[in-house]
Write a structure and sequence with these properties.
The complex is a heterodimer of chains A (115) and B (110). With 115 residues, chain A is mostly beta strands. Chain A contains no helices and 11 strands. The termini of chain A are far apart. Helix content of chain B is 0%, strand content 49%. The chains are: A mainly beta (115), B mainly beta (110). Chains A and B meet through strand 4, strand 5, strand 9 and strand 10 of A and strand 3, strand 4 and strand 8 of B.
Chain lengths: 115, 110
């Protein structure tokens, strides 16, 4: 089974802190994603990556950055956490989309609270 | 990416069939349609994908008319455990970006 593991299930950080959310997948997937989920807004794409060291902005990248130094690991970085970044963060991965597209596999999520 | 529109919420009762329609008027020739399901406190999971006509698997059926400007996810004989958010996605086969929307919250009652 594909496994996407997020390093923390719950996290509490202070305003202004630098926060790292880690995601690891074990299926050699090329494509990885970070989303945030807020009530009534669904899943919103923050950043995605299609290869090691490659990254692309998603729909709401402001206030975030990412790192993909190894194929299996995709990190989301909040340079200076703010209270409006309190949210559920979800990581996903999938193999390279091709002729028929591929399904994405999600981690369990990290509920981040910024106080 | 084709924009999608789906109802915000739907209520149903156990044993009924639930049909969720997604509109995607500007779907492109090389776009396919994918549905994901998200249970409370979990990440979404893929349930079905199609390009045209009808696709069926053990979880759901997906109906896509000839003009492909909409699609309908059909959940047969729902149970309480089908209470979830259902997302409709439309994107090209080779698109690395994967954007979700707000989804449809389906609540199944006893």
């Amino acid at each position: 089974d594909v496994k996407v593991t997020q390093s923390s299930r719950y996290l509490v950080k202070r305003t202004g802190e630098k926060v790292f959310l880690e995601c690891v997948q074990d299926m050699d997937h090329e494509n990885m994603f970070w989303y945030r989920q807020d009530p009534g807004l669904g899943l919103r794409l923050i950043y995605f990556s299609y290869d090691v060291k490659m990254k692309e902005k998603g729909d709401i990248p402001e206030g975030y950055s990412v790192s993909r130094e190894k194929k299996e690991r995709f990190s989301l970085i909040l340079e200076s956490a703010s209270t409006n970044q309190t949210s559920m963060y979800l990581c996903a991965s999938r193999t390279t989309p091709g002729e028929r597209g591929t399904e994405a596999f999600f981690g369990q999520g990290t509920r981040l609270t910024v106080v | 990416l084709a924009k999608t529109t789906q109802p915000i919420s739907m209520d149903s009762y156990e044993g009924q069939e639930v049909n969720i329609t997604c509109s995607h008027n500007n779907i492109a020739t090389n776009d396919y349609i994918t549905w994901y399901q998200q249970f409370p406190s979990q990440g979404p999971r893929f349930i079905i994908q199609g390009y045209k006509t009808k696709v069926t698997n053990e979880v759901a059926s997906l109906f896509i008319p000839a003009d492909r400007k909409s699609s309908t996810l059909s959940l047969p004989r729902v149970s309480l455990s089908d209470t979830a958010v259902y997302y409709c996605l439309v994107g090209a086969f080779n698109d690395y970006k994967l954007s979700f929307g707000a989804g449809t919250t389906v609540t199944v009652r006893a």
